[in-house]
């Protein structure tokens, strides 16, 4: 009898699915790629052909300037690639993010891509799919990572804003997903004022709005007078928090929305004054509860702190292995 | 204003302090907290910030053991390696038993402190576990930091006291002064701060009074009509304080060093407070007339909890008085230096002369004259001069324009490490005493001196590692090393010596810098050192 899942070949540069002759999230250009979501370390440019959700394809077009040669796949729609039935189901990570469900000769393997379980007003929620092998991420695969309630974290930014009307709150947030999610949460908490954004956030915010995520009034922060920016929330990429650009702002309260903010040292390294623990990745409890819920025969771990998750699986008598993919840096998540 | 009573608001304060970089912003955060909190909670918080809380029954090891019982030890270890800080790791990792909810009601800080104080060792684990169960991660972090002593959040005791002063519009030096006679939770401080009582006084106990300190003179010149010059002795600045049969010796930082110098303490039985230099009898500083041994001789007695009879006999200590703060209960600090000097002379005359003398005033006609005298001091192995404004009050800290120290610039030479030996006391596990040499004209390395001070602990570890990895021969406790490490040695003067093979001897050699950048061949020649002999 063949080994479970032996038709899937993990390579350092991605997961190769032999009977379908395609790659999942390859970090090098490949003839055929199935892409889970639009983050740069998963969606590279230059592939011969791409299968992904329409939203992910639109994000890739926005990022790389050209629409890839592609097959858009709606969630739940089954596509046959070679001998493999492939369907995409929501991963709850960012707009358009999907898990890849693959059926071949009676075995079902699900590659989660990046995912999270808590509600996100900007994308469809993760959908658990029973399977034989669950290929999971482990970005926050240590029990110290337990993301608190998102709304409470976003409220901290508003509290800081209201307590300091002469200053502005500068929120560092990853340009795809995090920025829009933070903005949407602010709206849900009743913050209707214009939110100012860094130029690098503009195209993806516009795309989100075009795809039906209402972000409310957004204004470009660049070139605005200090007085206009007092008492405002400004969203910028994490890299701009401490650079020349931010020096022109009115005494900014430096905030950063990221799961890494759970660790004080990480926040201090970034000179963050107001850490907001908001992540688009599953925390430790979400990772372990998802594995228990799906109850696969085997767990494969792609990237992150896989050692701890492997150890946890072992203590629960769950078969698990690490795939050790390369080129998957910790996202600024 | 919001009232802060509980662990929640203390945790909130710590969180904010962790993420605040500016000193002024930190002071404001603490000041706001102190103003907005009731007694005794704020006093305990203040004690935690100044490092004055110590719970005997709760140590870091207990927290570790408790955590290992609660979470998978492998996951704990991995988490600790990732996070670094123990308190933070535990605060994030701790798992309350199922069904245990984080407490909605705040726990009063004073209640927690009181409980921790009265815990026996046997009850400590259960009590700590209970608190960790009901608190949230941020509060757990605060609790562990509080309970185990060291906060390490970038707040010094001085900063916390400055915040207290700012909160209640007090003078920080006055706070510093009364501080030493008080114990947490400092009700007297807050009564004073909020105007219910006058500044606490310590008439019946020998408390530390902050020292007056000097600025380096650098390129400045002063008029000797306004300033008086005294020798600057190379010992330890101490304050002696006697009241009602109780004597205390304090170091400059306010540490109680009475135990290391019982000979001096016993001899100080006049009611009052004086400031002076603690020295050991000898002739290294200022010759027979100077009567003081080198700082190294004194160092042997430092940091000892108990002093042997032998040490007392071989290295008798004495104090060379500089100033007087109190004569009896009378506070003299607002008098000008000249008036205090007279009072000091009268006061010291009442003390045993083998243990107390007065630092002589150096007579000079004008500044240039003083400058020559200072240069000659190198031969006498005296550290330099002090310049004190004749009308200066005795004020805490460094106030510009009142006191200056005018040290001689050290002489420098690049030497090569030749031999190393283990140190004593705290440094006994390290090779910390080094013999170093310079090159003769024939290209031979000859020893020119020995040093065991001047380096940081980090540098000590670096040198120790070098010695261990580069030993070429052993002679009893002494190791001969590869002649490749260059030490920049600072010294006060250099003399001819028949006792040394090189024919020269340095005074007060100390390691100034590690010259890892310099090849041994480029170290100095003996001839270069000879040229420095005056
Ligand atoms: Zn991602
Ligand atoms: Zn990723």
Tell me about this structure.
The complex is a heterodimer of chains A (333) and B (534). Chain A is of the alpha/beta class and 333 residues long. Chain A is built from 8 helices and 19 strands. Chain A has helices spanning 54-64, 150-163, 178-188, 202-210, 226-229, 264-269, 284-294, 306-315; strands spanning 8-11, 14-17, 22-24, 32-34, 49-52, 70-72, 78-81, 84-90, 98-104, 107-111, 133-138, 169-172, 195-197, 218-220, 233-236, 253-257, 274-276, 298-304, 319-322. In chain A, the strands form 3 sheets. A 7-stranded mixed sheet of chain A has the order 7-8-9-10-11-18-19, covered by helices on one side. In chain A, strands 1-2-3-4-5-6 form a 6-stranded mixed sheet. In chain A, strands 14-13-15-12-16-17 form a 6-stranded parallel sheet, covered by helices on one side. In chain A, a hairpin with a 2-residue loop joins strand 1 (8-11) and strand 2 (14-17). The N and C termini of chain A lie far apart (41 Å). The model of chain A has no long low-confidence stretch (mean pLDDT 93). In chain B, the strands form 5 sheets. In chain B, strands 14, 15, 16, 17, 18, 19 and 22 form a 7-stranded antiparallel sheet that branches. In chain B, strands 4, 5, 6, 7, 8 and 9 form a 6-stranded mixed sheet that branches. The termini of chain B are far apart. The relative contact order of chain B is 0.08. The A-B interface holds A 142-146, 262-265, 267-268, 271-275, 305, 307-308, 311-312, 315 and B 18-21, 71-72, 74-75, 78-79, 82-85, 88-89, 92-93, 137. The complex binds zinc ion (ZN) (2 copies). Residues 37, 39, 42, 93, 114, 331 of chain A line the site of one zinc ion.
């Amino acid at each position: 009898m063949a080994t479970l899942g032996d038709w899937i070949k993990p390579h350092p540069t991605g997961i190769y699915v032999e009977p379908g002759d395609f790659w999942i999230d390859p970090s090098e250009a490949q003839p055929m790629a199935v892409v889970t979501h639009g983050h740069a370390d998963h969606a590279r440019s230059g592939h011969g052909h791409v299968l992904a959700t329409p939203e992910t394809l639109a994000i890739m077009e926005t990022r790389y300037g050209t629409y890839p040669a592609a097959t858009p796949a709606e969630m739940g729609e089954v596509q046959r690639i070679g001998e493999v039935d492939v369907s995409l189901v929501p991963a709850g990570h960012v707009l358009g993010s999907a898990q890849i469900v693959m059926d071949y000769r009676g075995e079902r393997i699900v590659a989660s891509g990046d995912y999270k379980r808590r509600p996100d007003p900007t994308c469809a929620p993760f959908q658990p799919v029973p399977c034989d092998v669950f290929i999971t991420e482990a970005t926050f695969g240590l029990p110290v990572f337990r993301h608190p309630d998102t709304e409470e974290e976003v409220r901290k930014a508003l509290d800081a804003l209201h307590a300091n009307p002469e200053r502005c709150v500068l929120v560092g947030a990853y340009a795809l997903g995090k920025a829009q999610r933070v903005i949407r949460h602010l709206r849900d908490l009743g913050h209707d004022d214009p939110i100012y954004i860094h130029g690098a956030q503009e195209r993806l915010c516009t795309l989100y709005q075009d795809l039906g995520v209402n972000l409310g009034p957004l204004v470009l922060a660049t070139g605005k007078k200090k007085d206009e920016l007092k008492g405002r929330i400004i969203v910028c990429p994490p890299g701009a928090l401490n650079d020349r650009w931010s020096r022109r702002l009115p005494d900014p309260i430096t905030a950063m929305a990221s799961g890494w903010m759970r660790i004080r040292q990480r926040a201090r390294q970034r000179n963050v004054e107001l850490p907001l623990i908001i992540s688009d990745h599953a925390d430790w409890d979400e990772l372990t509860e998802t594995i228990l819920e799906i109850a696969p025969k085997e767990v494969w771990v792609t990237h992150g702190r896989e050692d701890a998750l492997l150890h946890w699986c072992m203590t629960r008598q769950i078969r698990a292995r690490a795939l050790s993919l390369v080129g998957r840096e910790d996202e600024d998540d | 204003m919001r009232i802060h009573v509980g662990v929640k608001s203390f945790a909130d304060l710590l969180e904010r302090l962790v993420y605040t970089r500016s000193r002024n912003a930190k002071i404001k955060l603490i000041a706001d907290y102190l103003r907005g909190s009731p007694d005794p909670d704020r006093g305990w918080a203040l004690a935690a910030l100044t490092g004055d809380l110590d719970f005997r029954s709760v140590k870091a090891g207990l927290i570790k053991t408790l955590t290992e019982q609660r979470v998978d030890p492998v996951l704990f270890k991995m988490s600790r390696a990732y996070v670094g800080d123990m308190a933070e790791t535990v605060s994030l990792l701790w798992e309350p038993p199922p069904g245990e909810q984080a407490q909605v009601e705040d726990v009063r800080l004073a209640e927690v402190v009181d409980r921790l104080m009265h815990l026996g060792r046997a009850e400590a684990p259960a009590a700590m576990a209970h608190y960790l169960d009901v608190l949230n991660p941020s509060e757990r972090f605060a609790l562990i930091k509080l309970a185990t002593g060291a906060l390490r959040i970038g707040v010094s005791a001085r900063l916390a006291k400055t915040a207290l002063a700012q909160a209640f519009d007090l003078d920080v030096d006055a706070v510093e002064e009364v501080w030493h006679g008080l114990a947490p939770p400092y009700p007297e401080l807050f009564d004073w701060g909020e105007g219910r009582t006058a500044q606490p006084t310590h008439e019946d106990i020998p408390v530390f009074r902050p020292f007056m300190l000097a600025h380096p003179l650098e390129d400045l010149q002063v008029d000797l009509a306004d300033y008086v010059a005294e020798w600057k002795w190379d010992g330890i600045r101490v304050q002696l304080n006697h009241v009602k049969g109780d004597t205390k010796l304090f170091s400059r930082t306010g540490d109680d060093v009475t135990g290391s110098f019982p000979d001096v303490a016993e001899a100080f039985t006049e009611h009052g407070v004086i400031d002076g230099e603690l020295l050991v009898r000898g002739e290294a500083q200022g010759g027979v007339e100077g009567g003081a041994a080198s700082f190294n001789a004194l160092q042997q007695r430092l940091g000892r909890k108990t002093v042997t009879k032998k040490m007392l006999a071989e290295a008798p200590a004495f104090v060379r008085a500089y100033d007087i703060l109190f004569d009896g209960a009378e506070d003299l600090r607002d008098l000008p230096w000249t008036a205090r000097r007279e009072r000091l002379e009268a006061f010291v005359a009442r003390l045993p002369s083998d243990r107390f003398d007065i630092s002589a005033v150096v007579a000079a006609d004008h500044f240039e004259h003083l400058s020559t005298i200072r240069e000659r001091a190198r031969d006498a192995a005296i550290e330099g001069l002090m310049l004190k404004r004749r009308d200066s009050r005795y004020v805490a800290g460094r106030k510009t324009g009142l006191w200056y120290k005018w040290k001689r610039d050290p002489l420098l030479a690049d030497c090569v490490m030749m031999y190393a030996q283990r140190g004593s006391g705290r440094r006994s596990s390290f090779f910390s005493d080094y013999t170093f040499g310079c090159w003769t004209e024939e290209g031979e390395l000859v020893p020119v001196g020995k040093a065991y001070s001047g380096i940081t602990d980090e540098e000590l570890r670096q040198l120790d590692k070098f010695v261990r990895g580069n030993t070429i021969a052993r002679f009893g406790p002494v190791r001969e090393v590869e002649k490749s490490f260059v030490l920049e040695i600072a010294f006060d003067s250099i003399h001819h010596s028949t006792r040394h093979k090189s024919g020269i001897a340095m005074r007060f050699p100390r390691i100034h810098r590690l010259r890892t950048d310099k090849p041994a061949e480029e170290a100095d020649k003996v001839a270069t050192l000879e040229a420095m002999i005056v």
